[in-house]
Amino acid sequence: MTNTLYDALFAPLAGRAGPFLILPGGREIGGADFLALVAQAGNALRDAGVQPGDRVAVQLAKSPEALAIYGASIAIGAVFLPLNTAYTPAELDYFLGNATPRVFLCDPAREAEMAPIAGAHDARLLTLDGAGKGTFAHLMEGQSRTLSPTPRAPGDLAAILYTSGTTGRSKGAMLSHSNLLSNAETLADLWRFTEDDVLLHALPIFHTHGLFVASNTVLLTGGRMILLPGFDLEAVLALLPQATTMMGVPTFYTRLLDDPRFDSALTRDMRLFISGSAPLLAETHRAFEARTGHRILERYGMTETNMNTSNPYQGERRAGTVGFPLPGVELRILDGEGREVPPGEAGVIEVRGPNVFQGYWQMPEKTAEELRPDGWFITGDIGRRDAEGYVQIVGRAKDLVISGGFNVYPVEVEAELDAQPGVLESAVIGLPHPDFGEAVFAVLVPQKGVTLEAAAVLAGLKDRLARFKQPKAAVVLDALPRNTMGKVQKAELRKTYGDWFAKPPG
Ligand code: AMP
Question: What is the pLDDT of residues 357-390, one digit of tens each?
């Protein structure tokens, strides 16, 4: 009897004598001990009534136990459903109502506020904190350190991950055992992961990046992970010399570059830095290389599809691009009429392959809107390919600005703004405008110690961009609003400045 994902990722830990997890403070957890933790968590979940196919919803601090619950859910044939630790009770009410999990695990500090929500949706509430304490830890303690896995076929569901849902309600992306395994195999191979690798893991484990891209790749290849509870600059600086690889969102890399202690000596034993989940500025890419000698490898993916493209391991890692489709993944870029666009022109990216999800949980209409019957998934990202085939992400389709009937791709305007003196970064959005339908609006962030004049920055674009692309107004902020994955929250900016052109301030 086989369990596709468990057999490939977790079962091999039994034969691992050395450490699998390295924790801050120096504690280590060996492969066999981690597998015992997986077994105890799996037995505890079974005791709590979890049956194959049931959803196991978790909103937990990052810890070895929380990671073991992922493995445990897979082992017992359940469907793992991790939730962002920032979600509020009102949001959780929606997720539990939509996913109807058998159990819901949360932090003991939230037990009182979560009890009525779990009760309303018939989910058994259990608790676990970042130090491995709580009612679930209790339940785990008495359990056997071995477990016989429930058989699962490649097409069976392994996980549901809710999309970040910046417009409308979040949708639960259903991912099968083979969706996850095929992507882990492809990435491990492309990025040359081996058992000698030590991955510095500072990402959250409720999102595809930290949970699947990072953990699955290392589990598959028998390497080790330095598991940090989150991105802590001091910890990262201290532990980098012990690592060989790191995966991060662009803000990790800009924060490292902001610190003069981050240099080539510290990264001497590193083999690979990978970036994704949000665009890495070409400028960051260049500054990183100048400082460390490493060229960050940028890749592109999403909750529904795992990873789609990557810059090459060997060969040019081109700044400002996300590289080529992964082996086995097809990618096409279509115009509004459904025709493939020529190189250099922008259109909507579609992907097809073994990585593409099974549809949205209990939302057949949404699934039909975005997943074509022949397997192509409409990503909602706008992109273009350059002459050599490197893919560049131009922005989300919903972030496209249409001003006076002309399409404006925010990334193009942002790149010009970022190149202006004193500008650290920028975000370009479309706001309702009485004459133009939408007008281009810019949010600017100054470099450290610089006082930025919005009007002066906009004046600098006069000869750089066609007039319809030039922002009609701009504001200066200390920082852009970002979520935990480093994505700029453009919907939030649109809300804040929504009536700017309806009634201009002053
Ligand atoms: P999520 O489902 O939360 O992982 O978000 C996926 C979205 O993040 C994609 O559809 C893209 O819009 C964006 N994204 C991911 N990786 C990149 C990247 N390397 N560059 C630009 N955008 C990215």
Answer: 999 999 999 999 999 999 999 999 999 999 999 9
Are 274 and 192 in contact by the 8 Å Cβ rule? The answer is no
CATH superfamily of 4-153: ANL, N-terminal domain (3.40.50.12780)
Residue 65: CB partners within 8 Å, gap ≥ 6? 37, 41, 128, 132, 137, 140
Nearest residue to 219 (alpha-carbon basis) of 41, 70, 81, 57:
70
Residue 229: CA atoms inside 13 Å, Cβ hemisphere, count? 10
**Domain topology for 400-497:** GMP Synthetase; Chain A, domain 3 (3.30.300)
Domains 4-153 and 198-396 share a fold: yes
Q: Is the pLDDT of residue 505 over 60?
A: no
Of 1-15, 103-117, 191-205, 389-403, least confident by mean pLDDT is 389-403
Write the DSSP assignment of 288-352 as a string of letters.
HHHHHS---EEEEEETTTEEEEE--SSS---TT--BEEPTT-EEEEE-TTSPBPPTT--EEEEEE
* pLDDT 10s digits, 271-308: 999 999 988 989 899 999 999 999 999 999 999 999 99
DSSP state of 268: T
Strands of 347-352's sheet, edge to edge? 330-334, 347-352, 377-385, 391-396
Q: What does the DSSP 8-state code read for residue 109?
A: G
pLDDT tens digits along 140-150: 999 999 999 99
Locate the ligand 1 atom nearest the alpha carbon of residue 298 and give its number: 19
Residue 502 near residue 434, CB atoms below 8 Å: yes
Q: Which of 208, 209, 390, 487 to mutate to test the pocket of ligand 1 (most atoms within 8 A of CB)?
A: 487
In the chain, what are the domain boundaries? 4-153, 198-396, 400-497
Residue 378 in contact with ligand 1 by CB distance below 6 A = no
Residue 239: the pLDDT is 97
**Measured distance CA(451)–CA(443) in Å, rounded:** 14
Position 40 confidence tier, pLDDT thresholds 50, 70, 90: very high
Q: How much is the pLDDT for 88? A: 87
164 lines ligand 1 (CB under 6 A): yes
User: Do residues 432 and 502 touch, judged by C-beta distance below 8 A?
Assistant: yes
Q: Is the CB of 163 under 6 A from ligand 1?
A: yes
Task: Please name the CATH architecture into which domain 198-396 falls.
Answer: 3-Layer(aba) Sandwich (3.40)
Q: At residue 19, what is the residue type?
A: P
